[in-house]
Fold:
Amino acid sequence: MAIDLEIAGGVATVTFNRPEARNAISLEMREQLWTIFEALAENDEVRAVILTGAGGHFCGGMDVGEMGGGGGVAWSLTKIRRLHRIARAIASLKKPTIAAVEGVCVGVGWSYALACDIVIASETARFAQIFPNIGLTPDGGAVWLLSRQIGTMRAKEIVYSGRTVRADEALDLGLILEKTEGAGLLARARALAAGFAASPTLALGMAKRQFELAATLGFEQFLEAEAAMQPLMSRTEDHHEGVAAFKEKRPPAFKGA
Structure:
């Protein structure tokens, strides 16, 4: 498979593994990636997810060699819907997600990184919305995700120009949380993920939902939604464990339940 999956210590690592093509996403990989994230959503043993790439690059976007050709409009619509269901599966996963980016991260590959909760990058990372170079509009929710991250005007400049955004600029713009030096990227991602995996999974998933609602609801509406969430979380085993650990002055041992 061109998508690798490793699960250890509550952390799933999903790796684009097609280094000969800078991990460009083939038609086969679309199905694999969606299937993996759908399965991770149902796997209670997985409490955090890392998305990364093999061979020194994150993802070179869609495989241009598979673009064009026959199939007509209906086939083109099918292909874009498959891209979108991957973006939805990543963004809607009710578990913390971390994109660990080195080298090339362009096109829909960047969209999938942006769909993660947190992006960290090595000093080699190079981001770009390369769609103008091939006469296409962005996909994978890139415009929506970029606009939320950095505002409309900056997002337009990056999309219209198709230029490269390197790690230092990405850090300044808030497109990545932090930049790692040398070969420490995956180790840093795993350390972050391990911390999230040791946290109360249901509560983090509900907090993630709160961030989603905060983008669309007014303050009063948001408070109403929050009022339905907090009492529900107060009935979880992890909440009871957290309270007990606080009273007993010990670290909590959350189970994600």
